[in-house]
Amino acid sequence: MRIEQYLRQSAARDGAKTAIVAGDLRLSYHRFLDLSARMATTLRAGGVARGDRVLILLDNGWQAAVAVLATWLAGAVICPVNPSTKAPRLSQIAADCTPALVITEARLERLVAGVAELADTPRLATGEAGSFEAGLNAAPLPAEDLPDSDLAALIYTSGSTGVPKGVMLAHDNMDAAARSIAFYLENTAADTLLVVLPMSFGYGLNQLVTAILTGATLVIEKSFAFPQAVFERIRDERVTGFALVPAMAAMMMQARDLDPALFANLRYITSAAAPLPPAHLDWLRAFLPHVRVFCMYGQTECTRIAYLPPGEIEARRGSVGIAIPGVRTEVVDEAGVAVPPGTVGELVVTGANVMRGYWRNEAATRKALRPDPRTGAMRLHTGDLFIADADGYLTFVSRTDDIIKSRGEKVAPKAVEDVLHRMPGIAEALVVGVPHDVLGQAVKALVVASDTALTERDVMRFCAQNLEDHMVPKIVEFRQSLPRTDSGKASRRLAAEPAPITGSNA
Amino acid sequence: MTAETQATIRAFIVENFLFGDESHPLPADLSLIDNDLIDSTGILELVGFLEERFAIKVADADIVPANLDTIGRIAGFISRKQAA
Question: ipTM of this complex > 0.85?
Answer without folding.
Answer: no
